[in-house]
Amino acid sequence: MPFTPVDWAILAIVALSALISLKRGFVKEALSLVTWIIAGVVAWMFGAGLSGYLVNYIETPSFRVIAACTILFVATLLVGAMINFLIGELIRVTGLSGTDRFLGMVFGAARGGLLVVVAVGLLSLGPVQQDQWWQQSRLVPQFLMVADWSKNLILGMSSKWLASGVSVPAELPFKEHLLPPTMPQEVLGKSSSTK
């Protein structure tokens, strides 16, 4: 059975990701990934705190939190980009760029494969399994097998985590900044003192 256009698209995604990473190198790709993760964590953890400083500038609480998170996210990405540039220059000067680029290509191919696994897994949730292009593909079943395995692995790990007694935090970090309290603090203080 020959490759279908979907199979060629899958190969193109993996190859394009590998070529981009070949050009950039492993260290830059890995640092970029770490920077994005750190930027998300920084925005999540400190967005609520920064939103308090934006009260005079943004009236709506939800927009204030979104703006604060965006500021922190972008600022962290900029700092990460500067660090990434400096480390990239250091690698270039030391002469390790050939090895770095090869490892980057492997990393990029793996990233492209992971992207296809996620896309195939999400598409399989819809009615595409009856479509002819889905059924005739040679590569979709392979990636679907990996997507199903990953889903089962994640669900198994999360059920073990929940069964171990580890609890999910009852309060979300931004909840108090987005929702008005149901009762004023004075009323809560009086009701607890009367009991």
UniProtKB/TrEMBL annotation:
The keyword Protein biosynthesis does not apply. It holds the Pfam family Colicin_V. It is a multi-pass membrane protein. It is found in: Membrane. Keywords: Membrane, Transmembrane, Transmembrane helix. One of its GO terms (biological process) is toxin biosynthetic process. The keyword Chaperone does not apply. It comes from the Bacteria. One of its GO terms (cellular component) is membrane. Its main location: membrane. The chain crosses the membrane at residues 34-53, 65-90, 102-125. This is Colicin V production CvpA. It comes from Pseudomonas caspiana.
